[in-house]
Amino acid sequence: MFLRVLCILCIFSFVSLQYVPPYTEDCRTGMYPPSGPTFKGAVPWYTINLELPPNKRWTQIIADKKDAMISLAQAVRDLADAFVPSGRLEELVDKALPLMIDTLPYPFNEEIKGIATASGVPLGETLLLNIFYEVFTVCTSLVAEDPHGNLIHARNMDFGLFMGWDMKNHSWVITEKLKPLLVNVDFRRNNNTVFKSTNFAGYVGMLTGIQPHVFTLTMNERFSLDGGYIGILEWILGKRDGMWMSFLTRSVLENATSYAEAKKLLSDTKLLAPAYFILGGNRSGEACIITRSRTHNLNPLELAVKQGRWYVLETNYDHWKEPLFLDNRRTPAMKCMNQTTQANISIKTVYDVLSTKPVLNKLTAYTTLMEVSKGTLESYIRDCPSPCMPW
């Protein structure tokens, strides 16, 4: 947490204050259907056949997104060179990380190999792209119940904090490189949908997904001294009793058969890194925030409509603590949810909430809206024209 505060203060010192609006922007209305300067397009759909060999599953997607993936890899190289000008960090990635690939669980290791082959991005760099999503996501996720008992699960995916501020365009370098890689994926077996997700092409884990008519799931990063870097280091050194966060979410989306089973797996599985899992079911009252340390489920927060808690909302801070004052997306998001009221909650009004600054900010790559009862997932590429919060 200290490192995060320090980095934000450093960035705050060189980001022009004219691009930092008050934290009290009026709640947006009329933003849906998406249009205007905050909307950069709908995320395209692809199908992955889970019956294919793992190293062939992503071939079509990577063929379409190859140039964007190469561009992202180059941007990451440029950032690495800025920190270690000798090029030794890049050499370490290209030589050492490939040795780690076969320690990853099947089928994720084979899928990553296939993506490297299809894209032409070296295996070590492809693996690195799959690792850094584990430790650089800052997001807003919520599940709300409407007056009829239907559950709406939505999220803003914010990614790229500390990863290259573009002074000319007032944007995050990696965030902008990721937007062309966005894909919605329908994972199928026997020609039937198993689950759907919104992904960055080249990334085999899951951060946002729905098992239609059963449950919805998003994952947010949780900052902790016992964080992902420690878990990854332990994995490299041979201690491998924990699960990669995004591999767990994908496994749950693919294999869990109920909200209750998904909740148990997300609550009890030992992890490499702390995380927030935001889970929604298919019945009234089925939604929760699972706050995880690497080994324990801490102070779970459940939907409780009869007690007035008709939604649960998570950014990147424990729900029983105050958020960092420089990164308070929770308060404006809750203000807008409360102002909307349960009587008026819908896909349309949830999108309005997620379009209100600083819930929408310079890190926001996409917004996803899911309705479990309809089995639908829709995602939109976002922009936050200045003036806009950097995070």
Automatic annotation (TrEMBL):
Keywords: Disulfide bond, Glycoprotein, Hydrolase, Lipid metabolism, Lysosome, Secreted, Signal, Sphingolipid metabolism. Pfam families: CBAH, NAAA-beta. Residues 41-103 form the Acid ceramidase N-terminal domain. Pathway: Sphingolipid metabolism; Lipid metabolism; sphingolipid metabolism. It is found in: Lysosome; Secreted. GO terms for molecular function: fatty acid amide hydrolase activity; N-acylsphingosine amidohydrolase activity. One of its GO terms (cellular component) is lysosome. GO terms for biological process: fatty acid metabolic process; sphingolipid metabolic process. It comes from the Eukaryota. Belongs to the acid ceramidase family. This is Acid ceramidase. It comes from Pangasianodon hypophthalmus. The lineage of its organism: Eukaryota, Metazoa, Chordata, Craniata, Vertebrata.
